[in-house]
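Continuing the batch. This is chain 6 of the set; chains 1 through 5 are on the previous pages. Same settings as before, nothing changed between runs. Recording input and output for traceability.
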Amino acid sequence: MHIHIKLNDLLAERKISHREFARMTGIRHPSISEMCNNASKHIPLKNLAKICEVLECDIADILVLKESSQNKI
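Output for chain 6:
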């Protein structure tokens, strides 16, 4: 299992650029890009709270637990 970050999809639906969202949240642009590309190793809770506040959504709208694509033995 792994956690998938749906931030890129949410921003695309709302037609918000990564840079604009970084300004809206006060989160550094590289951090937003990492989250949008699912390259983040960790997300500070305060950043997650700010994202939910700005997008007016729940954490479950941003983070999804997915089955790993690796074969099970």
